[in-house]
Amino acid sequence: MPNRTVDFHTIIQSLPRPQDPKKNVRKEASFDPFIKEAYRIEQHIVSLKEFLQVTRKAYLRNEPPRRKYTNHQSKASPQISARSQFEGSLFSAFPRTITHLTDNERDEIDFQAKMIIRRCMDRVKDLEEAERIRQENVRSKNAKQFSRFLSNILATPETVNSEDMLAVHRSGVIWLLNKRLMEVSQIQKNQQETRLMRAVEKSENQLHLSSLPPSQMMMQQNQKSTKSTLSRNDDLDVESKFQQLFDNKPTFPKPAAEPIDDSSDSFADTGNAFEEQLSQDQIQMLERENASMLTEMENTLNQVRDAEKALLEISTLQSQLSSQLAVQTVQTDQLYADAIEATDRVEKGNEQLVRARERNKNTRKMTLAFLIIASFVLLFLDWYD
């Protein structure tokens, strides 16, 4: 009979290999509800942190972006769209490509981030409360006389470490969640502080412009209009029209280096003289500029107030997280010290039990030897009689 082993191996290799179902089964069934909830909270925290990092440039940018950066910013879209399946509307409320954010969208990000942080804080508190109840139940069971007697007799380092190390492990999990929540809140706080600082700087610049004399305001307005006109259209016709518009602009004498009279009469006379030299179109343009600056300053003031309020709220959450983190650190250290102390006590108790067994072993040998000798003596006396 010919050897067909090579053909057999060739046919086996050509067939698809069956997959082991045990390898595809995840080990989530072995996780307790505490660890499952901790992983879920950690997933939300990581998602929020990634979203804040992706939208940081658009969040802190005040002016609209240029067109050439649109393709570059679209690289961040998979990170945002991949996270849209998580809880909350923070990731699904914004488009995939974020290059510019309005003030309302920034306020929405602040609100949603605050809600997610607060919700995660509440869940961490629930985990901490559940662990506290579990530890109280374990203590109440160990406090019974019969169970205490059995635990003293049958105690081993493994049984003691299983309870103590479980408490230490869960306390460390809670501490880690609080620490990551504090890091995310710090990122959000830094962004809000930067936004508030830029809004204040913008309002200060507007106040500086509004405090300038009318002549300088007119000159700056003319410069702005010149730049905007030249940037939009570089045609010669536009330049000629622009020059014709301001050909009749009056020239103002350069003020001499004299002490300024702060009286109201001199200021009013100077203002009236300046207004008489202006044309009607220039006066209307200054009035429109003044109204637009006033409206913009009011909007900026409202934005600063909203940013201060949001910053105060996130600072309050961060202070709460800091206090919880400090308390959790103390509790974790105490539980770890108690676990080490309990392990040492059990080890010392086991050593004493080993020594007692050795002493009992010697006593047992002496008792057995005495009984054997006494038996032989009784047999000898019986034989002698």
From TrEMBL:
Keywords: Coiled coil, Membrane, Protein transport, Transmembrane, Transmembrane helix, Transport. One of its GO terms (cellular component) is SNARE complex. GO terms for biological process: protein transport; retrograde vesicle-mediated transport, Golgi to endoplasmic reticulum. Residues 209-231, 247-269 are annotated as: Disordered. Its main location: membrane. It is a single-pass type IV membrane protein. It comes from the Eukaryota. It is found in: Membrane. Residues 4-66 form the SNARE-complex protein Syntaxin-18 N-terminal domain. Residues 283-310, 339-366 form a coiled coil. The chain crosses the membrane at residues 366-384. The keyword Hydrolase does not apply. Residues 339-381 form the T-SNARE coiled-coil homology domain. The keyword Ubl conjugation does not apply. InterPro entries: Syntaxin-18_N, T_SNARE_dom. Belongs to the syntaxin family. This is SNARE-complex protein Syntaxin-18 N-terminal domain-containing protein.
